[in-house]
Amino acid sequence: MRQKVTRRTLLAAAALLCSAGRSTLAAAAQRGRPATVTPLKTLFACRFKIGMAVDPNDLRDEVTRDLVLRHANSVTAENVLKPHIIGAREGVYDFARGDALVAFCRRHAIAVRGHTLVWHQNAPDWFFRGDRSDPVAYRALVRRRLERYVTDVVTHYRGKVYVWDVVNEVASLKDGEVYRDSPWYRALGPDFIEYAFRAARAADPDVLLFINDFGTEEPAKRQRLLTIVKSLLAKGVPLDGVGHQLHMTTPTDPDGVDTALTAVEALGLKNQITELDVSFYKDPQSCYTDAAQCLPSLRRGSQEVGDQLGAQALLYGRLYRIFSRHPSVQAVTTWGAGDNGSWLSTFPTRRLDLPLIFDETGLPKPAYEAIRAASSTA
Ligand code: G3I
User: Which of 261-281 are b and which e, b meaning 16 or more Cβ less than 10 Å from the residue's Cβ?
Assistant: First the structure.
């Protein structure tokens, strides 16, 4: 008797093929290079893309390049697609470094995440120059510049970048305030977000458009971001998903991450984890304005570092279990490849921080083992 082909049977068949392919790939990877570990992209091949954030300069470093080539099938431009690099002057674009990263990724069949079109940090001054005494004309001028920039950049990378963080970190950090105060907000009010999304969609009908932010694991920040997301959806703004940066520290209860992913799913949107790392230090807020207030550096090889690596592994494992439970999670990107290339070794102060899954020489850390174990539930 012929079995009726339903969407469910098709999905089941696809899942079977996927897991069979995954174990074959994993076995091949182990056979080919016995001294190396199974690539993360193989462990999660059936679930989500594995991303790493790097710049073209980082890829000159052998450890970083090997980690990317071995483990990632998505790369985020850590800096080279930001406006202060591409658009330092009005109407003059410098795509050289962005193009170099895209070319590397195309050569190696790696997808590219575009980060980011609009951000309060590093936004060149020329966007905001003009006579503010005529508010209507001034607004129109800044809006035109924003739309021109977004259109030109998205058009340049059309078909090469699969997802853009259209706006980055627009939710406020303060209680009772939804939108973050920024040059963009001061010039255009909250509408700058809508203008950017609509211009991006007009320039590329196929690219995924994301709003990206940190702290979505915390209830107050999450509520502010969701308020923005809901208002965009109510206006029919073309928004495909939410990027959760997840710059974490130990110890952190990851349940807030689960809640955040569920809340986004409930709105019918996709999720991506966009900047994951797990720092050794839970600094006081004052450390971000006065480095003397930051926690002192741990000593390499000390008991504390060993404890941190264990706690970090535990958190990474729990996080990847959570990501695996949410079909809406399409990609999980770490902010860097190995500990040799993390922004946290110099920010908020210069000190020993080893926040990633691979160490400074590219070897897997305890975090890798915890993630590998979590992948069996994927
Ligand atoms: O490349 C120059 C180098 O030539 C120069 O000698 C040196 C002196 O300061 O600066 C180098 O540029 C630095 C660049 O990182 C590359 O390392 C910039 O000063 C520094 O401001 C820049 O910081 C970046 C930061 O965003 C600001 O754009 C970090 O690398 C990058 O990791 C960080 O990424 C952000 C995400 O975009 C948004 N979420 C938070 C995340 C971490 O802050």
Answer: bebbbeeebbbbbbbbbbbbb
